[in-house]
Amino acid sequence: MSLECREKTMTCEEARHLTARQVAGEAVGSCDAQHVQHHLETCELCRLHLEELLAARVLQEAESPRPPQDLADSISSAALTYMRYQNRPMHQKALGSPAFFATCASLLCGAIICLLASLRVAAVPGVNANAVAAPIARTSQDATGDSGGTVLAVQPDAVLAACSRATGYVTELLMSLPGGERPASLVAFYPRRPTLVSLRSSGPARLQPTPIGRARGDCME
Amino acid sequence: MVPSAYANPEQVLPHAAQEHALEDVLLVRDAQLGSPEAFTAIVNKYHTRIFGIVYRMCGSAEADDLTQEIFIRALTALRKFQFQGEASLRTWLYRIAVNACINELRRRKRRSQVEGRSLDELSDTGHGLMERAIPDLSRLPQEIAERHEVQRLVQTIIQGLSPHHRAVITLIDLEGLEYEEAARIIGCPLGTLKSRLARARHAFGKRLKRAMARASG
Asked: Which of A78, A113, A216, B4 has its CA 20 to 30 A from that of A185?
């Protein structure tokens, strides 16, 4: 400290006030500057405070980035499109809605599954696709739990499923194959709507009816 | 075309915060009723500042896309918006912007963890995400005073901070908001905001000092 400056103990508050002025670019007296310097050498908190002020100063002097010139127009245009979409009549809105697409997709999937199932039967050697609608065999009363259950489809190796008129349930019938094997696939065929029901790799050797789904009451005669 | 009533509100009502707030009330009311002109006026009034926040917090890549997304998000939520005091439209928009930026930063971090890092993406330094583009400090310190270089350095250092530190620095030091408004935007108590700001500035200062020291050899 120079001789002309009187010895002075500076408080943290005074030092911070002066450092704030210095950082802001204001002039402070040379003695004050020396006192501040002396205080900073001994006070870590005030040094941290000064670092914070300097960082803030650098940040505050940074220029704001300029957006692209056409940004406002493109936002407004996107907003307008969105507003038009929101203001469409209900039936138009429904056409473009996710629910509409989901419904279409489910219908399409259903149609494809039906088609594939029907093709699969047609492709089985020895089975006439036109004959699918005709009852191939009738289940016994013991097997389905009610009389008049109808076996609707068969693959070369096993009876696959039956439909119970009384309960409206598709009834799965597992039969042992001649060689002791189990049927690999189980498909219930309704008169007009062939439907893949399930796949099963093992099961009891005897006829065992198991309700596996609603048959919509369209069990064939 | 923006009608004259909404054109350049800052020119129409210079330095009149109260009238600005009234302007916002009218704009919001009309936009809520479905007026595209009113929403366009809101965009014109705030897009520069929202872009600034996005640019500072997420970097220049996709800043304009994210800004657009923020305004569309605001438009979607506009019907539920209610005024809760002066400058509340600005607070509300800034809050949407800050949340969108924090989500974007998290998404980028997740993506880099799943897909591996791209050279264009931010790199995680353990103290936040940092742009891989290393600032050209070879000409420092002689030319560091050049505004462009300082600008670049500041931006690079901010990109190295954590998302929450970026948010406080962006709102308070770069956008010049009051502590109270920044706390409302970020959704934290005032004390938390102040201590977070101090830590963020300290981290910034440390990195700046390190960059300067590295530059001067």
From this structure: A216
User: What's the complex ipTM?
Assistant: 0.72
Q: Where are the domains of chain B?
A: 1-116, 119-217
Flag whether residue B61 sits within 8 Å of chain A, measured between CB atoms. no
B90-122: per-residue pLDDT in tens?
Answer: 889 999 999 999 999 888 888 777 665 544 444
Contact B51 A75 (CB under 8 A): no
- At the second CATH level, the architecture of B1-116 is Orthogonal Bundle (1.10)
CATH class of B119-217: mainly alpha
**Domain ranges in chain A?**
12-61, 129-214
According to DSSP, the residues that pair with A187 across neighbouring strands are A196
Say how far apart CA A126 and CA B68 lie, in whole Å. 64
Contact (CB<8Å) B173/A61: no
CA distance A218 to A52: 80
DSSP strand pairing (A150-155 vs A158-163): antiparallel
Segment (H or E) for A38: helix A30-42
Taking CA atoms, B82 is separated from A62, A118, B66, B89, B92, in Å, by 34, 59, 24, 9, 10
The predicted pLDDT at position B71 comes to 93
Other beta carbons within 10 angstroms of residue B2's beta carbon come to 16
Closest-CA distance of chain A to residue B144, Å: 12
Cβ atoms within 10 Å of A162's Cβ, excluding its own? 27
